[in-house]
Amino acid sequence: MWVLNFRFDFLITEIMRKHILIISSFLIFILACNKDADFLNTAPKDILTDDAVWKSEDLTLSVLADLYNRYPEQQTITNWAEFTNFDEGFPSEAGNYWRTKQVDYPYDWWNLWDYGYFRDLNLFVQKCQAADQLSADVRNRFVSEARFLRAALYFEEVKRMGGVPLILEPMEYNFSGDPTYLQHARAKESDIYDFVIAEMDTIKAILPDDASIKSRATKGVALAMQARAALYAASISKYGVNTPTVSLAGGEVGISADKSTAYYTKALAAAQEIISSGRYSLYKKKTEDLQDNFASLFYDKSNNPEVIFAQDFKLKSGKVEDWTLNNQPWSSAEEQQGGRVNPSLNLAQLYEKLDNTYSPFVTNTGSDYVYYDNPLDIFAGRDARLGGTIILPGTKFKGVPLDIWAGVMYWKNGQYNIITGDNFGDQDSIPVAGAPKSSQVVGADGPVDGLQFSAQTGFYVRKFMDQTVGSGQIGTRSEVWWVRYRYAEVLLNAAEAAFELGQNDVAATYINQVRERAGFTIPLGTITFDRIVHERRVELAFEGHELFDNKRWRLAHKVWNGETISAADLVTNIGKADKVNTMIYGLWPYKIYNPGNANDGKWVYKIVKPSNVTAAHRFKLGNYYSQIGSDILSNNPKLIKNPNQ
Amino acid sequence: MKKIIYLALCVAVLSCKKDNYDSPSVTLAGRITYQGEPINVSSKDVTFELWEPGWGKNGAITVNVNEDGSYSALLYNGNYKLIIPPSQGPFRSVLNNETNSDTVRLQLNGNRTMDIEVMPYYMVRTPQFLLTGTTVGASCKLEKIITDVNAKDIENVFLYLNQTAFVDGTNYIARSSIAGSDIADLNNVSLNVEVPASTSANGSTGDQQYIYARIGVKISGVEDLLFSPVQKIDL
Q1: pTM, whole model, 2 decimals?
Q2: Minimum Cα–Cα distance from A616: chain B residue
Q3: Taking CB atoms and an 8 Å cutoff, what residues of chain A touch B173?
């Protein structure tokens, strides 16, 4: 009997084995199809349908939120490495040293051809306008916000590519086999700027006039964008004569010189409308410490009177940023990383002395070093934005003192010799009789040449850095926002427009407000072009302006001309708008070990070029407007190429 | 299991036919010349484009011109169009009689050597380099070739020194310059530059007993510089 039983079992197993596929698909069929009608009518949970969206204010807002989220950026806190392409910062990360070893900028860098985003924006405008189930106020605000974003994208396109096809309706293909009716030629560069300016005039009256709204479009940001766009158009029109070959016969690139006055006037008017509204003001909550005040301006999100428009982040929401994680000083790091963006000495020395004069940091008198009691002393008496933008040796971050020094200089055989380490805070014995057997010979933050995450220029970045505990942890990160428009830039835009229109006094009034907040007590008398350029560089460093400012002033090919600069070149002509700035330098502190001498324990400084800075950047005329991809050109024969490429 | 193996074998055998295309094997080479004399340019800067019409997508084959004005490209046989983009090089394209434009038709049927004739703004004639002590002196004659409405002035003349044979505006360890407005006589241009105390300052090659020199001419409104041939100088 047990044999039979066994046989039967075997049979079952055999059947199972052979027909497992059939059985299981049968089971799936039975189980899945409990009721056809229900199954086929399940509402999708991962897409929003037109029917559902345009009835509901909340869902429409969700669609709009996605559009906000795609706002175009170049240099931003969520893309740290882009800040190290020029001369503001050095990339202290092994995978990014190529940025300081590359001579030429490829012509297709910074190119942008985002017609998918344009289409979504045009669809939103079209469908939201027809959404009669939303209340008129809500609908008008939504439509205006989408038009704001569309103008922002056109502004970004024209900054990078010049005139692009101006498409304001969603286009549909009729499957006729002939797509030529969908191909549009490039508009003139001035047409795109005119469009942006005109859109802002229309929507500023509809958008809320409320300075407490920072992450959505308001009247304030509409005016701020209008001022910036008009200023860009004006300066291209005025300074385009310096680069006559950067133009196209059809006006797709280049704006004729006679338009500059009108654009400057528009820029000044838009900026003055914000200024006279009194809705915004410079951030001055911590006037007892102006450096701290300037740093707080970027991370203080409660009632910040200066920020006009920002990309906001929120902890534990999934939308967090890692600027602090990427750039935290090693001495207070919460992970085994940080310190990536190292501000350059080129930038640091631009910050003036408080008597309004430019001066390099004093490292030597004659043939001898200058000895400082405290590492911070060399930076004393300067523009408060120096310490507000850059973490300096001798300061603190998150309550932890910075430990930035490159080595020990000890006196032996009638000269200084250097001993240093090759890792953070290395110990070694100084080869002098009576020296301790082992002592620290390099700072816990570096600089160690070629050691990633160490302060290879002697500096770490402070702007946008989050003081909160946990902001440097991978699991937490930061909710500090990315400031896209702020009041100080509006003042500087007004100052530049007024200066170009010959209203020097008006320009001085605006520029001096910004400088007074930075600790300057002597107002500037006359404003020069060099002053305008300088003030923007120091106020707006690490905010994504430098490339586009140098492009619109047609300075980029002079400032980044591919010529090697020496340490001597570096410290001359500070504050000149067209100063050659092709290579990044650093400033390294050394500790003196010379027992019995008055200088023992003091600090000296050396100007150093990090060994990974091998190339002098060269911005060619073909870089002014980025290359349009050959796939885009072959899809649309009406497009013409950008010049000099 | 066996079935799978057979299947895999079949896939492997059937899919591996001979490759559809041979690799490009035809060499087009030559020089950029003026009256048969090569035009020296900077390294990796000057390019021209070859277009092969008839294919679905348009895209140029970019050919780099070497420092000494020579070029070479590995291509397929076919009919090409050659253009030098207007922004390239210290020269202008010559009108081609066949196409009545700056486009040159180019038929490739086997290896071909072809010099491309252009109109340079200037030519560096009889460059001479002389080492005296630790100073390199250079002199040359600058001949203005384009003298019609398209003529351009000289912005600067440079004398560059480098450790390697690549000597140009981004590859140098020492240089001197003279502004175009300060040149009294284009037939007699001379410059001096001090050889740096350590010729190894820019790399790890160690002190070397020779150096390379070259004269570069920046023409106003033209991005690429015109050069003399590279000269090796024993120190």
Answers
A1: 0.89
A2: B170
A3: 564
